[in-house]
Design brief:
The chain is α+β, with helices and mostly antiparallel strands. It has two domains: about 1-160, 3-Layer(aba) Sandwich (Kinesin), CATH 3.40.850.10; about 160-209. It has helices spanning about 1-5, 60-65, 70-95, 110-115, 115-120, 135-150, 165-209; strands at about 10, 20, 25-35, 40-55. The protein has a two-stranded antiparallel sheet. A hairpin with a 4-residue loop joins strand 3 and strand 4. The longest helix has about 45 residues, at about 165-209. The chain is elongated.
């Protein structure tokens, strides 16, 4: 993360002395390998953590950006717009308005990187940073609307496990249950047979007498 931050472009504008000129995405992937001694089978559970620092949207008239700074601001705004469209499409799907609505993940590198974090098998939290200054009213309102749309995305996260390993485990559990039922049935049959044998012997003794 430290090395990534070193290569991240930061520059001064009229609104911020240290303005981030790019987004930052930090990903950690954890793989848990499971091994079943009884069956000799193995499987994996995989988890991903994505930490994202989004650069803020900006207006050239306020930032006074020119040249490379202007291009950077334009690219930032474009990716944030695409992210907004993705969030809106996912929110509509969650609300049941249009289950087949196209989600433009590929329209931006940012949204493509965050595909699994936004609409995949995930839990997502967004922290919106706003300014209390009156002259930033429009930006603050836009940010709050952005966050409000994201809040309406509903994902149902489940454990990322190798499906084959899960099927094998479920089948093994079912086999164990059937074995237990079979053992109980055999014990029950054995007790019944003994009971019937005793009754038969007792009856035979009575007949002899």
């Amino acid at each position: 993360m430290s090395e990534g931050n070193k290569s991240r472009t930061v520059a001064a504008t009229n609104m911020n002395e240290e303005s981030s000129r790019s987004h930052a995405v930090f990903k950690i992937t954890l793989t848990h390998t499971l091994y079943d001694v009884k069956s000799g089978t193995s499987g994996e559970k995989v988890g991903k953590l994505s930490l994202v620092d989004l650069a803020g949207s900006e207006r050239a008239t306020k930032t006074g950006a020119a040249g490379d700074r202007l291009k950077e601001g334009s690219n930032i705004n474009k990716s944030l717009t695409t992210l907004g469209l993705v969030i809106s499409a996912l929110a509509d799907q969650s609300a049941g308005k249009n289950k087949n609505k196209f989600v433009p993940y590929r329209d931006s590198v940012l949204t493509w990187l965050l595909k699994d974090s936004l609409g995949g098998n995930s839990k997502t939290a967004m922290v919106a940073t706003v300014s209390p200054a009156a002259d930033n009213y429009d930006e603050t309102l836009s940010t709050l609307r952005y966050a409000d749309r994201a809040k309406h995305i509903v994902n149902h996260a489940v454990v990322n496990e190798d499906p084959n390993a899960r099927i094998i485990r479920d089948l093994q559990e079912e086999v164990e249950k059937l074995r237990e039922q079979l053992t109980k049935a055999e014990v029950s049959n054995e007790l019944t047979a003994k009971s019937e044998y005793k009754e038969e012997n007792s009856q035979n003794q009575l007949n002899i007498q």
